[in-house]
Amino acid sequence: MAGPGSSFAARRKAVKKGVQFTLLVVGQSGTGRTTFVNTLCETPVIAHKAPVAPEMAHLEDGIKINPVNVELEEDGVRISLTVVDTPGFGDQIDNEFTFNEIMGYLERQYDDILAEESRIKRNPRFRDNRVHALLYFITPTGHALRELDIELMRRLSPRVNVIPVIGKSDTLTPSELQGFKRRVMEDIEHYSIPVYNFPYDAEEDDEETIQDNSELRALMPFAIVGSEDEVEVNGEPIRARRYPWGLVEVDNPQHSDFQRLRNALLSTHLTDLKEITHDHLYEMYRTEKLSRSMVGDAGGPDYSADQDGSVLPEDMATQSVRLKEDQLRREEQQLRDLELRSQRELAEKRQELLAREEVLRNLEARLAQAQTSGTPPPQQQQQLSMSQHGAMHPNLTPGGYAAEEQQHLHNGMQQQH
């Protein structure tokens, strides 16, 4: 297995092009998940959960899956780190939905790779978002694993490298912490949970790799303490948590396993985690997916498989092409649906425009007819109607005579007298 003795050629390539690495963090609220990520990246990558009003405390938001990208540099190697946070995990009474959401996210990344591999012409800008490691934060109860912990690690281990950690381990005394670690590993062994245990080959690996992996394996589950604040000690700033009785230093191996875990994730075992993801976890998923598809297409047993249940390589290649053809057909159908919807909307707009033009033509026709027949416009019709109902003309007196004629008659009568 890969470890500190990884090939020099691979390291030179990583230094030149950079390394892409995806880390999934899962744990209940209050286990130090957010603080750990910000401490790992040495920058506030994830915002802390806002306080919830008492009247809203009974509402459940459900799990969310939020990937965040950050650029790091470790030992001269540029690392494009993607941290996938899972706020809301474990906050429900029934967590079946949260298990399925995380599993679905992991498998969708595998499906994207499977589809890309089936392309005749690969996309040079395709981004591999497969998760290479999952840090599961165990609540520091001091007792043993809970059913929630066992079920999640057991379900997700076939799809991702699961690394158990104890969040906020400074809440336990040294003796409590050692006992808790021992019971957690006993439960993992008892329930046959295949966590990532820093594997090595005693016959092929060098002594340095064997010793380093053995020490890391002995630290599992890693006791984590995180802090986003710095405290000045002897004139030097260090990351630590201040308590009335003293300081807990994040990078002090006697206080926390944080530095050993960070070095393993981003340096010594980064390549090994990626290789296991691609060579074992993804290949196992790929075989299962293609086998299920072949059985489903045949509508019965898979007679192309040999007696031990494995699938022949030529059948897998044929099925891969078939999956790609199905994907192309789905994309073509989506384009046709989009085109039909656009044509339908365009036809509706055209009918609406024609209706408005018809209304305008009718108004113009009525106006022209009124002008030809001498019918007064609507405003004059209203004034005429008012005069017919007793409204006086502004130049007429109540007797019906014009004012000038009435004055002339009055003057003539005076002359006769």
3D architecture notes:
With 417 residues, the protein is of the alpha/beta class. It has a domain at 8-294: Rossmann fold (3-Layer(aba) Sandwich), CATH 3.40.50. Helix content is 50%, strand content 13%. The chain has a 6-stranded mixed sheet with strand order 2-3-1-4-5-6, sandwiched between helices. It has a 3-stranded antiparallel sheet with strand order 7-8-9, with no helix packed on it. The longest helix has 61 residues, at 313-373. The chain is elongated and about 110 Å long. The termini are far apart. The model is unreliable at 300-311 and 390-403 (pLDDT under 50).
Question: Which helices and strands occur, and which strands form pairs?
Answer:
Elements: H1 8-17, E1 19-27, H2 33-41, E2 66-74, E3 77-85, H3 96-117, E4 133-138, H4 147-156, E5 162-166, H5 174-190, H6 207-219, E6 222-223, E7 230-233, E8 236-243, E9 246-249, H7 258-268, H8 270-298, H9 313-373, H10 378-388, H11 403-416
Parallel strand pairs: 1-3, 1-4, 4-5, 5-6
Antiparallel strand pairs: 2-3, 7-8, 8-9
Helix pairs in contact: 7-8, 8-9
GO molecular function: GTP binding
Region (Disordered): 369-417
Pfam families: Septin
